[in-house]
Specification:
By secondary structure, this protein is of the alpha/beta class. The strands form two sheets. Strands 5-6-2-7-1-8-9-10 form an eight-stranded mixed β-sheet, sandwiched between helices. Strands 3-4 form a two-stranded antiparallel sheet. The two termini are 19 Å apart.
Length: 274
């Protein structure tokens, strides 16, 4: 069931995209969407051309974080979607198509088809990176993305809790079985440290993601703290988190560079499950 690049039929709209990175989490509520956006913005700040796909059909979060509303999208004469340009990145989401108050009540195959349409019927143009914010879980949509989209690599997001770690293992196993490279793991909500205090409070357990990365021989890209944001502050201008995402983007670009060098040298990429 291994994924091989020569079996993938790459959509025409993705042919000018150099790297496609899937951000996965098998558990909802771990902060994957916020992390996806911040990685995209950090890559953009490097001077790279970046796109972002919100592939969570049931619960799209990116329109809220990017201050976008349904109805902003435009179609070309060829019925191709023109992505929005927000914060310097190209962006598409089901939340830009459906009414924000109306739930999407679709079965699995319809959702998978909608995700493929968002990816393949959007005019991305030339991009250095396309970040795919995937829905949580290990179901039809995730399998479709892994098997039908030429993902360059992936990042797994979790929190330290035992329940999140348990689900995250299932996600890693799924990615490994399809032979997709994993550039690393991000542990979110690792601790809370009040202002003007040296004490860290491990609200959701300690080092669960770190231990998981060691178990699967994955790079631990970051342990991100919980931070209190003021009304006029967001993640992008919080100095602690901004520095973390600069480091994450550095590690991601280096990982993909190494993957491509190994691929060109004919070295197979296999994630070993211990």
């Amino acid at each position: 069931m291994a994924q091989t690049e020569n079996k993938l039929r790459i959509p025409e709209t993705l042919r000018k995209v150099k790297n496609i990175v899937g951000i996965f989490s098998a558990k909802g509520g771990v902060g994957k969407s916020a992390i996806s956006l911040q990685i995209a913005l950090a890559l953009k700040d490097k001077g790279l051309k970046v796109g972002l796909v919100d592939a969570d059909i049931y619960g799209p979060s990116q329109p809220v974080m990017l201050n976008s509303v349904a109805g902003e999208l435009k179609l070309t004469q060829d019925k191709i979607i023109e992505p929005l340009m927000k914060e310097g990145i190209k962006f598409i989401s089901m939340g830009l198509i459906s009414n924000e108050k109306m739930p999407v009540i679709w079965r699995g195959p319809m959702v998978s088809g909608a995700v493929m349409q968002l990816l393949s019927q959007t005019e991305w143009g030339e991009l250095d990176y396309l970040i795919v914010d995937t829905p949580p879980g290990t179901g039809d949509v995730q399998l479709t993305l892994l098997q039908r989209i030429p993902l360059t690599s992936s990042i797994v997001v979790t929190t330290p809790q035992k329940v999140a770690i348990s689900d995250c293992k299932k996600g890693i196993e799924m990615i490994n079985k399809l032979n997709l490279p994993i550039s690393g793991l991000i542990e979110n909500m690792s601790w809370f440290q009040p202002d003007e205090s040296d004490k860290k409070y491990y609200l959701f357990g300690r080092d669960g993601g770190k231990e998981l990365s060691q178990e699967y021989s994955l790079d631990l890209l970051a342990q991100l703290p919980l931070v209190e944001l003021t009304d006029d502050e967001n993640i992008q201008n919080n100095p602690t988190l901004k520095k973390e995402f600069v480091n994450i983007s550095d590690k991601l670009t280096e990982s993909i560079k190494n993957l491509k060098e190994k691929k060109s040298a004919g070295i197979p990429q296999i994630n070993i499950i211990q």
